[in-house]
């Protein structure tokens, strides 16, 4: 007898073993639908694409629910190709002309640099999956926004409902609030069409949801906040006791460091605190994660960290997901260093709260992460990104690392429990499972 449980197609360019931003959200969402009793197929890129371009974390593949089928299709990224043997003659001898041609070619079918050429293979793969085992619901996550193309084709040809899950935004620059694409342009028209036909739209925080709701009031009731949250199975154990008095304090950051992250400002503030406060004079600060978005660390960011090695600032490299808990155990204070913008949160802010450690926020006070941390008992925000303000926050956090009572630390841990990722996903997954219904529940459905 055939399995009558709903078939959910989850579309995510970045899926384990990819280590690009948003992959933890993708993994958790696919697993949540599987735990809810859905048959889940994930449509993603081949492992080789991640190995060549973004870097991989093989330990994450072990966390994919064993019932999930993962369909991988080829993805080429010519602009990121570093092997000269793979370059065309045009790229070698006329690189500027080649880049202009490549930019046009990328967006011929879908208006997204680098990812546009995936539009055709993605649509074909979605149709093949549906022909083999009819899909009841598509959940597509961005970025890249080309992932929405699989949802679009199955909706157009077979009436399959779909969810658009925005990790950031398509039209909105989450850092400065400006538009990334012109009003009335190709991107704006395509996004508007996709939104109008969607069953639900997810955003990672309320400021981004509200911005979109104001632009698209007719579908505001379909827009939901599904915060990133933290993964309990990877979350650090709460540290309810102060570190030994003779142990130098360890400050730590875990996450991707992009050019938007105020690492230079933090480093200057760290130097000020290191040179004047007894606790900071012996303390260390370590950055863990990727420097930049790709597998090769940014030389600029590497050099920046090296310039402050004399004040015990260092880079410790990426952290496999399976080792995150162990790394947190070595921290006495967490550093949340984020780019500016009221629309910016961070996946790590939720995980940080589960440590019960002091958290220093080195970001614009108007950043959306402030809304998450506002009631966290051991939160030390900066007033601005000047060295003096950063130094004061670091010094206050150092004092708290030494003196915070177990009761205060337990209050931090209790506060964090509402941010578990499964609690963020559960209401929407339950509602969508009901929407998907059984295999014969959709009008116009074809096998």
TrEMBL record:
<protein>
    <submittedName>
        <fullName>Glycosyl transferase</fullName>
    </submittedName>
</protein>
<dbReference type="GO" id="GO:0016757">
    <property type="term" value="F:glycosyltransferase activity"/>
</dbReference>
<keyword id="KW-0808">Transferase</keyword>
<keyword id="KW-0328">Glycosyltransferase</keyword>
<dbReference type="Pfam" id="PF13579">
    <property type="entry name" value="Glyco_trans_4_4"/>
</dbReference>
<dbReference type="InterPro" id="IPR028098">
    <property type="entry name" value="Glyco_trans_4-like_N"/>
</dbReference>
<feature type="domain" description="Glycosyltransferase subfamily 4-like N-terminal">
    <location>
        <begin position="21"/>
        <end position="229"/>
    </location>
</feature>
């Amino acid at each position: 007898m055939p399995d009558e449980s709903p078939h959910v197609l989850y579309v995510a360019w970045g899926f384990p073993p990819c280590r690009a931003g948003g992959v933890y959200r993708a993994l958790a969402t696919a697993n949540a639908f599987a735990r809810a009793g859905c048959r889940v197929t994930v449509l993603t890129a081949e492992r080789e694409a991640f190995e060549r371009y973004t870097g991989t974390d093989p330990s994450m593949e072990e966390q994919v629910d064993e019932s999930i089928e993962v369909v991988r299709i080829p993805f080429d990224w010519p602009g990121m190709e570093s092997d000269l043997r793979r370059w065309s003659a045009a790229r070698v001898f006329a690189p500027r002309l080649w880049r202009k041609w490549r930019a046009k070619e990328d967006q011929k079918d879908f208006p997204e640099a680098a990812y546009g050429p995936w539009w055709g293979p993605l649509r074909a793969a979605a149709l093949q999956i549906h022909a083999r085992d009819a899909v009841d619901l598509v959940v597509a996550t961005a970025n890249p926004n080309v992932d929405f193309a699989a949802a679009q084709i199955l909706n157009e040809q077979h009436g399959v409902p779909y969810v658009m899950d925005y990790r950031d935004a398509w039209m909105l620059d989450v850092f400065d609030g400006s538009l990334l694409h012109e009003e009335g342009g190709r991107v704006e028209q395509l996004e508007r069409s996709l939104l109008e036909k969607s069953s639900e739209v997810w955003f990672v925080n309320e400021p981004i949801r509200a911005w979109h709701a104001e632009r698209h009031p007719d579908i505001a009731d379909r827009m939901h906040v599904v915060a990133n949250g933290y993964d309990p199975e990877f979350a650090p154990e709460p540290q309810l006791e102060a570190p030994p008095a003779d142990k130098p304090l360890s400050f730590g950051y875990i996450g991707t460091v992009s050019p938007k992250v105020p690492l230079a400002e933090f480093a200057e503030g760290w130097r000020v605190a290191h040179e004047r406060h007894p606790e900071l004079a012996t303390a260390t600060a370590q950055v863990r994660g990727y420097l930049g978005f790709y597998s090769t660390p940014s030389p600029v960011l590497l050099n920046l960290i090296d310039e402050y090695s004399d004040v015990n600032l260092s880079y410790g490299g990426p952290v496999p997901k399976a080792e995150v808990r162990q790394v947190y155990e070595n921290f006495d204070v967490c550093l949340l260093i984020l780019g500016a913008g009221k629309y910016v949160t961070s996946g790590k802010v939720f995980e940080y709260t589960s440590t019960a450690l002091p958290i220093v926020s080195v970001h614009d006070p108007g950043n959306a992460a402030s809304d998450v941390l506002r009631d966290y008992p051991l939160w030390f925000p900066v007033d601005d990104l000047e060295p003096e303000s950063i130094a004061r926050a670091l010094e206050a956090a150092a004092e708290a690392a030494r003196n915070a009572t177990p009761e205060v630390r337990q209050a931090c841990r209790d506060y964090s429990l509402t941010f578990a990722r499964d609690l963020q996903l559960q209401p929407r997954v339950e509602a969508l499972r009901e929407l998907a219904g059984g295999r014969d529940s959709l009008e116009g459905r074809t096998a």
